[in-house]
Amino acid sequence: MSHLILVRHGQSIWNLENRFTGWVDVELSSNGEKEAIKAGNLIKTLDIKIERVFTSYLKRAINTLEFIMKINNFKNLPVVKAWELNERHYGALTGLNKDEMQKKLSKEKVHELRRSWDCPPEKLDKNSPYHPNNINIYKEIQRDKIPDTESLKDTYERVIPYYENNIKNLKQNVLISAHGNSIRALCKYLFNLDNKNISNLEIPTGNPLVITINNQKVVNAEYLDKDRAKDLIVF
């Protein structure tokens, strides 16, 4: 039996400003740092030895992981960073305010773009400063792998192969610090959620989700911060 702990990064400055963030590399807000610290302290209460840690290329997830590792004294654990664990790319919505886009496009359309399984926003112009081609942390990634936009389905199709090839068979306790949609993709896979149910799944910031796995099957899942837990749909 092993454990998989999934942590969505603490609140970022663009979460605070209610903006679509995606692959843009923004900092944690002060509240996000507090959420990361609380996540670290919650994990510290567990009787679980973390043996491997993974995160994305984005500093909001990396910094959340750093807080957790410092609190838990994970000095000798190498951090594996994978762009495949990045947040979903929000295309032309990147950087825009969600409330303003609801007024412009309608609440229903924005909900569809945010929550549907296979409906991506329009592509982001490659000349935009928010396009990954123009962000330094992605300079080593093959250009044909960098998206201009993504649906949740597209996100799933990069997250899950990475998980299957690099994490699934480790037989170790693993901690992943990632993002709302990369974690939603993992939850769809792990809990076998259909396309309708996955649209209802919300992942709270900075609240560790502890998943117990036995013989490649999920046998239990629970959030550590009960006051901020979301409906897991399956448990």
Describe the secondary-structure layout.
Layout: E1 2-8, H1 13-16, H2 30-44, E2 52-55, H3 59-72, E3 79-81, H4 98-105, H5 107-115, H6 152-166, E4 174-178, H7 180-191, H8 195-198, E5 209-214, E6 217-223
Parallel strand pairs: 1-4, 2-3, 2-4
Antiparallel strand pairs: 1-5, 5-6
Structure characterization notes:
This protein is of the alpha/beta class and 235 residues long. The protein has helices spanning 13-16, 30-44, 59-72, 98-105, 107-115, 152-166, 180-191, 195-198, and strands at residues 2-8, 52-55, 79-81, 174-178, 209-214, 217-223. A six-stranded mixed beta sheet has the order 3-2-4-1-5-6. The two termini are 19 Å apart.
- Enumerate the spans where pLDDT stays under 50 for 5 or more consecutive residues: none
* Count of discrete alpha- or pi-helical segments spanning 4 or more residues: 8
Shape: globular
Order of helices and strands: EHHEHEHHHEHHEE
